[in-house]
Amino acid sequence: MILPQYLKKLGYSTHLVGKWHLGSYQKNFLPTRRGFDTHMGYWNGYISYRNSTHNAYSMTGKDARRGFNKSGDEMVDRYATDVFTEEALKIIELSKYQENPMFLMLSHLAVHSGNAGPNLLEVSNKTYNEIRFNYITNESRRMYAGMLTSLDDSVGSIIESLNKNEMLENSIILFMSDNGAPSEDPIWGHGNFGSNWPLRGEKGSILDGGVRGVAAIWSPELSKKHRVSENLFHITDWLPTLYTAAGGNVEDLGQIDGVNQWTSLTNTSEQMRSKILININEKIGEEALIFKQWKVVKSNRTSGFSYFLRYSGDPGNKGPDYNMSNVVNSLAGSHLSKINCMVSKKDCTDAMTTRNLFYNVRSQATIINKCTERISHLNPKDEHYECFDGYCLFNVYQDPCEYRNVGIQHEDILNTTIYMLDRFRKELVKQSSPSIDLNSDPHNYDGYWETWLEPKSQRNFAHQK
């Protein structure tokens, strides 16, 4: 079971807007069969920003659904970020009339790339975008900035709507990324020119540039403490954490991988977990694990994925200074600040106080001051640095850019973390290598991606609810 299924047991209405990507070969694996009351969006990993087309494995088809029903017409010549934002706003507007609490998951396409090719990156208005970001010299980086700006506007609109509909004061808002940016992508062709600077690695890598995600969580209950948590937090922890926040008993979840971190977010900075398995990929010979401040890494120079282990991205073009006033006065900043003031009963009429608070939190989240060596030595030539011929050990609290291999100095820690990897390896279920099923070709289903292993008698969703 997944989060919406558990939340429904607590009386929540559940809604998904945007990306699904958790299986679609049969309808029992689709969102409305796995806990969501409604879904408007797409089933696969990405679509075009303007026509809902998904290209993969030399096959092309539309991927746009409202529940089970085809909805490609709703997205023709419309910018996907705007479409999904409008849908989310409608759900919020309708939810204010319902007694049940609402769980809304807005899984944007942005800033993921669209289909590979000339329209890999798309913005809402290219002419305006070129003018607004003319100080960025790289055209693809200008496009990325425009995509991200539309995402920022979407977040602001959502928060504004929650406030207008008197729901914000009783909400938990979680904004999170799922992986590092694919700055350059010679394997899949989906580089989006995002930057993981100053971290090492990118999407597809076991290094922190690929797996260290960014997340921000807000609620009135948390607004009394403005801080950056450096605790270890795995994606699986959100299930027990949010279930607990919604009033559930974590024991209802049974034996799961996730750890309930709600207490550490609300009342204490206590470390709730000490260990995270990043991955053990037995096919390409890569593995990594974090134990407290230590991270053990082993790579494979012949895997084809070694490209993703290097430092990529850049600190950005020289442009306008960071304008904290714009952040404070943005839709998201202004509405959240007002609620924070109401909860904390502070006088927030002084804009400088709010700006200082934002600056303080931003500075806590900045790691570049820990990566001075990495910045001054962009292309180290030490073979051991690549972790190809053995294991590397990094202290990621002191060296988040994974520049200094300290395995020789801390051999006991290195051996301990390798032993932990060996324990996990005993539980490993080996990967399968399924071939591409050409029966899934959208040409077989009126040009739409379909649940191709469904019995033919059940393929017509027109009358399904």
Automatic annotation (TrEMBL):
Keywords: Calcium, Glycoprotein, Hydrolase, Metal-binding. InterPro entries: Alkaline_phosphatase_core_sf (IPR017850), ARSB (IPR047115), Sulfatase_CS (IPR024607), Sulfatase_N (IPR000917). It comes from the Eukaryota. SUPFAM superfamilies: Alkaline phosphatase-like (SSF53649). Residues 3-247 form the Sulfatase N-terminal domain. Its cofactor is Ca(2+). The keyword Glycoprotein applies. GO terms for molecular function: metal ion binding; sulfuric ester hydrolase activity. Belongs to the sulfatase family. This is Arylsulfatase B. It comes from Sipha flava.
